[in-house]
Amino acid sequence: MAELLEIDGLDVRYRVVGGWRALLAPRGSRFVDAVLDASLHVAAGETYGLVGESGSGKTSLARAIIGLVPHQAGSIRFRGSPTGGSDRAMRPLRRDIGMMFQDPVASLSPRLTVGRLLAEPFRIHAIPGRDRAAEARRLIAMVGLDAGFLRMYPHQLSGGQARRVGLARALALDPALVIADEPTAGLDVSVQGEALNLLGALQAEHGMGLLIVTHNLPVIRHISDRLGIMYLGRIVEQGPTRAIFRRPAHPYTAGLIAAVPQPDPDIKRDAPPLEGEIPSLRQRPTGCEFHTRCRFATDMCRSVAPDYRLIAPDRGVRCHFPLG
Amino acid sequence: MSPPVLAIRDLSVAYRSRRGRLAALRHVDIEVAANRIVGIVGESGCGKSTLIAAVLGLLAPNAEVMSGTVGFEGRNLLAATPAELRAVRGPRIATIFQDPMTALNPVLSIATQMIDIQYRSDEGATAKRARAIAMLTRVGIPDAAQRIDDYAHRFSGGMRQRIVIGMALLMRPALLIADEPTTALDVTLEAQIVHLLREMRGEIAGSILFVSHNLGLIAELCDEVVVMYAGEVVERAPVRALFHAPQHPYTRLLLACDPARVAEGTFPLPTIPGGLPDLAALPQGCVFRARCPDARAECATPPPLRNIGAGHVARCVRAGDG
């Protein structure tokens, strides 16, 4: 499979102290690194799941791909050519990458009808020669809503319906890659399957690559081909979904999988699988950044940062002593 | 058996709206026995929030109690005066909500808030403060003696929920209502909070009404489960019976949809097609009929709550048929 998206050594940094205070603050505390040295690739037709808890950097990484936040180091290549530069330079790229945002209602303008929201991508990218009203009808039918929704405003939609409109917008211009940020957040169990089934069916039909950003492990297990697990802005484990769930190599991945409550009353856990909380991005632990919560941490882990290394041709981990 | 701590009987609540009366709760019966954890599971619009509001006397102005009683410590809370309710809420029934930040006052220190809620106690301020510090230590706040003087924004989301749990249990309530207490938390913190609730339960000797849409948490924490759909209790059972032998079709479908139970690599994922009925114009008969794969002619008359035995009931004509 040809690689659609290749990210190599990506850093995303945010300024946290600005203005005159920046002059007084020590150099190291003016910025936080939201993403550090992240590398991943997504092929056409493939579904990649980017998993992590709040503050792990997964949304920053996704937003950096379409240039919504700048990156400070590393490269992002889409279909073989590097991305970046001005908004104008990014425009053709954004036409080929559809984005579904985390909050489905907030990502739709409250002052536009669904019909106008769906026609907007064609207007922004000045796509000539197509009947935009007809396109809006095609898109709304594609996501399984009837044409009556075209006259509604976003506040009249339920969470699931707003999610479908967001998906229709993301797919408007037949993108080669769709980035979906938490596509199931806020949906009930009985309808979250609907949103994912739709995404999967459209992927089978159009062959696009899918990058799904989520903290929902039970769901991503069913719909992704490969996974990347993020902790404090770094990808700590990467590989085929099945292999990772069968035998996680990083202790954090193992803890994350064990933390998912099992719908079986006969299973009672004695202790929470992971103690403590994610450290502050402003005070990264020394050595391996996971050592503060790792049951297996040694002196080496506390002082020497592990490199990301391959443990199988398609599997990598950032740990001195991966689980076997 | 000792009388239940909380006994909700035949509770019906409707909201007045421009479209007429919305029958949000209809003939709900729920009992919470001493020392038990009862889970309420249901999706958006099932009436969970209205139920909690009715128990706490916090119903919206346009809500109307159509029938029923909420029995707690020998009296009907629905007939209690505002002053009587204030004496119950907090010391006798404590509540933890989804978002801990909205439960904590941002402009008062944790110490001030934890001393304030002990206003019914005769102890002095020093003793109250010591009790608050002991409770914070108990719920896992490191350096509680120093950190008690911090404000809520200085704590992480998980720590805030620990503080709220500590505050709720400080007065040793007979009943703790936990309304989606981990929904705003990451999965590793969720596991820690559920573990904490299980530990605290042994110490306070109280009952918990645990409201959640997460079947995994219900299975892990609860002794009994109540399944609600569109304002009705459709099934009620001990936790093992509910997960191993569910009787109502809605319960079965809900369990089947849980991605944590679906076999690996299943596609498409199971869903429950259709939507909730209109609460302003309820269909005749079973509320789940329109979405039920086994619906038949007899479902057009309201199904009785059938007793399957050992505390297991289901509102379906076919319940118990195997």
Structure write-up:
The complex is a heterodimer of chains A (324) and B (322). Chain A has one domain (3-19, 27-317): 3-Layer(aba) Sandwich (Rossmann fold), CATH 3.40.50.300. Chain A is 31% helix and 23% strand. Chain A has 324 residues and is an alpha/beta fold. Chain A has 11 helices and 12 strands. Chain B is α/β, with parallel strands linked by helices. In chain B, the strands form 2 sheets. Chain B has an 8-stranded mixed beta sheet, with helices on both faces. In chain B, strands 2-1-4-5 form a 4-stranded antiparallel beta sheet, with helices on one face. Classes of the chains: A alpha/beta (324), B alpha/beta (322). At the A-B interface, helix 7, helix 8 and helix 10 of A face helix 7, helix 8, helix 9, helix 10 and helix 11 of B.
Spatial order of strands in the largest sheet of chain A: 6-7-8-3-9-10-12-11
| Global shape of chain B | globular
Number of helices of chain A: 11
CATH superfamily of chain A: P-loop containing nucleotide triphosphate hydrolases
In total, how many beta strands of chain A?
12
Number of domains of chain A: 1
> Average pLDDT of chain A, to the nearest integer?
89
The pair of chains with the biggest contact is:
A-B, 44 and 45 residues
Order of SSEs of chain B: EEEHEEHEHHHHHEHEHEEHHEE
Low-confidence stretches of chain A: none
Are there runs of chain B of 5+ residues with pLDDT below 50, and where?
Answer: none
Tell me, what's the shape of chain A? globular
